[in-house]
Design brief:
single chain; Alpha-Beta Plaits; 10 strands; 36% helix; globular; binds iron/sulfur cluster
Length: 280
Amino acid sequence: MYCSWCSNPEGQLLRPRVMYREKKCLPTHHRCIDMCPNNAIHLKDGSPYLRFDRSICDRCESFDCVGACFKQALSIAGRYYAVDELMRILKRDQGFWGGEGGVTFSGGEPLLQEEFILEVLKKCRANYMHTAVETSAYVETDFLMEILERTDWLFIDLKHMDSAVHREETGVGNELILKNLEAVAIARGEKRLVIRVPIIPGFNDDAENLQATAEFVRALNLNEVNILPFHRLGRSKYEQLGLEYKFAHQAAPSKETMLATKHIFESVGLQCYIDFETPF
Ligand code: SF4
Ligand code: SF4
């Protein structure tokens, strides 16, 4: 999925990407241009600042430009981990988590890395680590069932009830997601399953859609909904990746809007909490 409000666009490709912060750049020597083996960096028209040919950079393996920059204007978003390498890091930190700590797999979309997450979840359980997975659920149903089996908590996004509107802003229809929600709602037993609804102004925040969403969740016999107000914390990442950000000037929903949204979910008997406030 490619949600147009995404706050982690660097996670939408399954590979590390170079990011360029123009504000930190001191373009007097252009060491990065000299070091790039692929001739992918050019000057912006009439400017000493840089333009990256993303069709080349998004296939780069060396990232030589990053090491050439002494101003930290260039960085690499993302890196590869082997399962055991990640487990070593988690185990190192496990002692600091306290009784309520654990591991949350988020994104981007953690279920894009199918074999990897299944293996890490298996090892987390073997090491007595509590786990939570946050996903769009736009995956094969059988795979989602395996995730449900291996994690302690599952958070699933529900972005819009109308498939055509859903497709406009995410790139895909919602049929598979609704089908998967029905499947995991039946199979979850006592396991915690939370529905997450990002509240995106002008996309899904109309009363009709919110009411339909609330009734759908209620009919699944679920009881927890977490609503997340749109924010623009990812805006600078779009600039650093040279991408357009459709929501660059969109204001966040007001507190009143979020409270009214919360009320819609509560009015059908759901427990609803805003943002990251804890339901406990
Ligand atoms: S990411 Fe690779 S191809 Fe792109 S500018 Fe840097 S070194 Fe060149
Ligand atoms: S090396 Fe760094 S500071 Fe110099 S031009 Fe490249 S990005 Fe800018």
